[in-house]
Write a structure and sequence with these properties.
The complex is a heterodimer.
Chain A: H1 12-17, H2 19-37, H3 45-66, E1 69-71, E2 76-78, H4 80-107, H5 112-130, H6 134-152, H7 159-190, H8 195-205, H9 210-227, H10 236-243, H11 246-271, H12 276-299, H13 304-324, H14 328-356, H15 371-374, H16 376-390, H17 396-410, H18 414-440, H19 445-449, H20 455-473, H21 476-485
Antiparallel strand pairs in A: 1-2
Helix pairs in contact in A: 2-3, 2-5, 3-4, 3-5, 4-5, 4-11, 4-14, 4-20, 5-6, 5-11, 6-7, 6-11, 7-9, 7-10, 8-11, 9-11, 9-12, 10-11, 10-13, 11-13, 11-14, 12-13, 12-18, 13-14, 13-17, 13-18, 14-16, 14-17, 14-20, 14-21, 16-18, 16-20, 17-18, 17-20
Chain B: H1 2-22, H2 28-52, E1 61-69, E2 74-80, H3 84-102, H4 110-129, H5 133-142, H6 144-154, H7 159-188, H8 193-202, H9 209-226, H10 235-242, H11 245-270, H12 272-298, H13 303-322, H14 327-358, H15 369-372, H16 374-387, H17 394-409, H18 411-436, H19 442-447, H20 453-471, H21 477-493, H22 495-498, H23 504-510
Classes of the chains: A mainly alpha, B mainly alpha.
Chain lengths: 490, 511
């Protein structure tokens, strides 16, 4: 039945393809041990080490890509797609660490625990990106999620962080259960859990079990839709993003989301591709609902983190538009968009983290008032991120949207495109509000109290800004790679 | 050499913008001197274009086409024709003038101000030169951002409301245009404007009636918001009134032309059938705009608002001229685009100068300025007369041609539109009378001084242009006529067969 799965003892090639996860896990464990040995509980050394680990694992991911192919009997598939998302989540990790230096120092909480959890979470996301097997996907999802639940509640004394962690944990567990249920149904119908095998079986048998498989697709969509905060499973996102420590919010809005989208794209574009007509309306509706709910709810927010949470729901909607187009062009567009989104969103959260001050006092939109006068560099960077989130040309966000809606039009989704683009005009309003207060108001307390930029933080602002502009001016480089890697069914 | 010059004109302001960002924040003098120098150099370079421009050709000239992004196939394609040439010159002429009139009035955050002004110039020039639809969209949006900041940071009391409204209106229109551009690309597999045009006119690419209509409307709405065409004009009075003087000048003189240029350059040749089918409605809206704008201008107590509404009225003429589909009408429309840039630009400059002195935009706060500042009054009078279409001054030529074109197409249109000319005389002369004659108030006497050397430098080029364009239109019109004739052919010839589902050869055969 499944001739191409030959279970063998693993060899060197398998381990090489698994290198990023190995590096991250080993380093994560090492950091935990180190924090037990070191007398000083709070030290920037942990941050340095985890940046080293992430840089090393990016190198590992590149090595793995050079020797790409299936690993562990087809459970992993290290292709361009996997490598793209591995690099995205690890870059997100590096930026998160850069943001967290000053934040954790301010809270006096630069522990090994934080960085270990971060590395574990990223290891899980790398695994998700490379997984080609439903059970491995599930394992990756759990590794990533459990570490993120703890990260969300990392500041133990903060009531909001506790609430966020609990909410995230409870709802997240439910969602994962849905996903697992879907896996079970797929296994029941086809007897396989390998994505490629399921694809082959479904292409051959056609629609004999269409209803059951449709249900399985729907169940998995619930689980993954939760992870990417797509409507109607978006309820947790605003509370969790608002309550979590800001660097963690930045991480949650980019890393797990990119990994979950990788899984979503891989499952729906390989296994469920043969029954695409069945799930397309579902994703269509979810895409439209996410964009609309996200954007309209964001209009009314006064807390920046909450507003960015709603905006991230809307951006999940844009990526779902790419999925709805059910084409390789769409997949490539989604990949590009997620990379651009990771940069611009982390950048925006970085500024919020920088401004929020000790105990995260300053989080409201008005607290940005006059930032352009007290710290023009920070304001200019945030302006770039916001313009990119709006989708103004010469930024990565614009090209992302452009490719997505181009793919959608190619698949004749005219109405979804028009509604999506009008949505992005609505979105302009709330992003502009931030620009307005930053540039057109007199400085308020928060902007006057703002700390000087540390070198690490300067880097945490400049790197995403350069990335955003690079993707906006020379998008070919990334897009070509995404286009080459978007063929998931080989 | 030619190619290089066009690129130089386009990229000088961008280079100036980037360099301006690096200037020290503390010295506003360095920023404005730098902006003036760069904008003057750009202007001189753009004058150089005239030397290389072939006045007898209708085709796009000095074309430069570099691949930018491989997939989708986006090119950095720019070129200039008899219409865009003048609009580029208009932009490059007005930018140094804007720097001059901001010299004293902008003290706060001068560095960013002049940087944004240069970025705006870059965007505007780019819009007029872009021959790749995608590139056009990029410039279209790029020009939006600096204007948003100019209004929002350096504007008057309700500046934030005006800036956001301006941004959102334009954005809403431009996303529709983006949809249409992508849709066209998916059909034609190119963003190159002349290639799409070729495919359409050779019948290689055939759009059905509904497609053509929707695409036309998507483009047209984006442009009509920018023009602005009644009833999409409501952002304009707010933006104009709240913007700083230079912002109003650039907005009125150049940015509004982006809309009419877009209609003329893209909408009409690409979708001639739809353009013809909609022309009745559009002309009706344009005429309503002409009369409505004039009537509302008449009752404004605020000088800037008056000029803003007069823009709605003047731009109605431009749209009317285009959609009369006659040679005279289109020539007049283009001429009127330039005229409006010069005249209304000048009006905003004067209003700005008065505001700098008296710190009020209310007409009621003035009176007797002619006594206090005779030269200022004389210059303003010339501009007023130009604006109301006095023969030998520029607007007369444009309005005459538009009305002539409209009369050829449909005499009733001309009759209604000419009401606008009459009303213009009413509101402008009445404005002049109330501001410059009458009792000299104490405030006016003590504060309103006459033009200074720097202000003269800003005003004289505009006055010269008014007379030149009014007396010797032959300098400007022949290249325009070449292009409009071509647009006219494109919009007429394609009509018979574009709606057919058969290839053009067959249709010709049947006939």
């Amino acid at each position: 039945m499944s001739a191409d799965i030959v279970v063998t003892a693993f060899n060197g090639g398998d381990l090489l393809r698994f290198l990023p996860e190995i590096v991250l896990t080993v380093m994560g464990t090492f950091l935990m041990l180190l924090s037990a040995i070191l007398k000083k509980q709070s030290s920037p050394v942990f941050g340095h080490l985890s940046i080293g680990a992430l840089a090393g694992s990016i190198a590992g991911a590149v090595c793995a890509y050079r020797n790409g192919g299936p690993a562990f009997g087809g459970m992993l598939l290290v292709d361009g797609f996997a490598t793209f998302f591995r690099i995205v989540v690890m870059s997100v990790g590096i930026l998160t660490v850069l943001i967290s230096y000053s934040f954790l120092k301010r809270q006096d909480a630069e522990t090994g625990e934080f960085h270990a959890l971060l590395l574990f979470s990223i290891a899980g996301q790398c695994l998700m990106a490379a997984a080609n097997d439903l059970i491995v996907i599930f394992i990756g999802l759990e590794i990533s999620s459990i570490a993120s639940y703890v990260l969300a509640g990392y500041l133990r004394d903060d009531k909001r962080a506790n609430e966020a962690a609990l909410k995230y944990f409870l709802l997240g567990s439910f969602a994962t259960a849905f996903f697992l249920y879907g896996v079970a149904v797929v296994y029941g119908c086809t007897g396989a859990i390998n994505l490629t095998v399921v694809h082959t079986l479904l292409s051959a048998t056609g629609s004999t079990q269409a209803v059951m498989l449709g249900a399985a697709a729907a169940l998995m969509f619930v689980g993954l839709g939760f992870k990417v905060s797509a409507a109607p499973f978006q309820m947790w996102a605003p509370d969790v993003y608002q309550g979590s420590p800001t660097p963690v919010s930045a991480f949650l809005s980019a890393g797990p989301k990119a990994a979950a989208f990788a899984v979503l794209l891989r499952i729906f574009m390989t296994s469920f591709a043969p029954i695409g007509r069945g799930w397309e309306p579902l994703v269509w509706l979810s895409a439209l609902a996410s964009m609309t709910i996200g954007n309209f709810a964001a209009l009314k927010q006064t807390n920046v983190k909450r507003m960015l949470a709603y905006s991230s729901i809307a951006h999940a909607g844009y990526v779902l538009v790419a999925l709805t187009s059910r084409s390789e062009v769409g997949t490539a567009a989604a990949m590009f968009y997620l990379a651009a989104y990771a940069f611009m969103n982390i950048g925006a959260f970085a500024v919020v983290s920088h401004l929020s001050g000790r105990g995260e006092r300053y989080q409201s939109i008005d607290d940005l008032s006059g930032l352009a006068q007290t710290q023009p560099m920070t304001a200019a960077m945030l302006a770039i991120f916001l313009l990119s989130l709006i989708g103004v040309p010469l930024t990565g966000g614009f090209f992302g949207k452009f490719y997505i809606f181009k793919a959608a039009l190619e698949s004749h989704l005219v109405w979804l495109t028009v509604l999506g683009l009008l949505n992005s005009a609505v979105a302009a309003y709330y992003y502009l509000r931030l620009l307005v207060v930053m540039y057109m108001r007199e400085p308020a307390d928060a902007a006057r109290d703002v700390e000087p930029l540390t070198p690490a933080f300067r880097l945490a602002l400049i790197l995403p800004a350069v990335g955003t502009l690079f993707l906006g001016i020379f998008p070919s480089w990334v897009l070509d790679f995404a286009g080459k890697s978007a063929t998931l069914v080989k | 050499m030619n190619v290089n010059l066009l690129t130089v004109v386009l990229f000088l302001p961008l280079a100036g913008f980037l360099a301006a960002l690096c200037l020290p924040r503390s010295s506003s003098d360095a920023s404005r001197r730098w902006a003036l120098a760069i904008s003057l150099v750009t202007f001189v370079a753009s004058l150089g274009l005239l030397a290389f421009f072939d006045r007898n050709a209708a085709a796009e000239q000095m074309a430069l086409d570099l691949p930018w992004i491989a997939s989708p196939n986006i090119h950095f394609a720019i070129s200039v024709n008899g219409i865009s040439l003048w609009l580029v010159l208009l932009s490059t002429l007005l930018t140094p003038i804007c720097v001059l009139i901001s010299w004293r009035s902008i003290r706060n955050r001068a560095k960013e101000y002049y940087a944004f002004l240069l970025l705006l110039e870059f965007g505007l020039i780019g819009v007029f030169l872009a021959q790749d639809l995608f590139l056009f969209y990029v410039f279209w949006e790029v020009s939006l951002v600096p204007m948003y900041f100019l209004i929002g940071i350096w504007g008057h009391d309700r500046r934030i409301y005006a800036a956001v409204k301006f941004f959102l209106y334009t954005m809403a229109g431009s996303v529709l245009m983006l949809t249409a551009i992508i849709y066209l690309y998916n059909q034609a597999h190119t963003f190159n404007y002349s290639e799409i045009l070729r495919q359409l006119s050779s019948g290689e690419l055939r759009l059905n009636v509904q497609e053509q209509m929707l695409l036309f409307l998507a483009f047209f709405v984006a442009f009509a918001i920018k023009v602005p065409l009644f009833p999409l004009h409501t952002w304009l009075p707010d933006a104009h009134v709240e913007a700083p003087t230079a912002g109003s000048v650039m907005l009125a003189a150049v940015m509004l032309k982006m809309g009419t240029y877009g209609i003329l350059h893209f909408c009409v040749p690409l979708f001639p059938n739809a353009a013809h089918r909609c022309s009745g409605w559009i002309v009706t809206l344009a005429i309503i705009g002409i009369i409505y704008g004039a009537l509302v201008a008449m009752v404004q107590p605020n000088m800037k608002k008056l000029v803003a509404y007069s823009s709605v009225s003047h731009l109605g003429f431009v749209v009317l001229g285009i959609f009369s589909f006659t040679q005279q009408g289109m020539d007049g429309a283009v001429y009127q685009m330039m005229n409006h840039g010069i005249t209304t630009g000048a009006l905003f400059v004067f209003v700005g100068l008065l505001y700098e002195r008296r710190h009020s935009l209310e007409i009621a706060d003035y009176g007797g300025v002619a006594t206090a500042a005779p030269w200022l009054s004389t210059a303003f009078l010339v501009t007023t007369l130009a604006s109301i279409g006095l023969p030998t001054l520029n607007n007369f030529v444009g309005e005459f041609l538009v009305l002539q074109g409209a009369a050829i197409a449909n005499f009733t249109w001309a009759v209604w539109a000419s009401l606008g000319v009459i009303f213009a005389a009413c509101y402008m002369l009445w404005l002049y009378q109330r501001v410059f004659y009458g009792e000299v108030g104490e405030e006016v006497r003590s504060r309103v001084s006459d033009l200074r050397a720097r202000e003269w430098a800003a005003v004289i080029p505009l006055l010269v242009m008014m007379v030149w364009m009014g007396v010797y239109s032959q300098t400007f019109l022949p290249p325009v006529g070449k292009v409009t004739a071509q647009i006219l052919v494109q919009s007429e010839v394609n009509v018979p067969y574009r709606v057919e589902t058969r290839p053009p050869a067959e249709v010709a055969h049947v006939r």
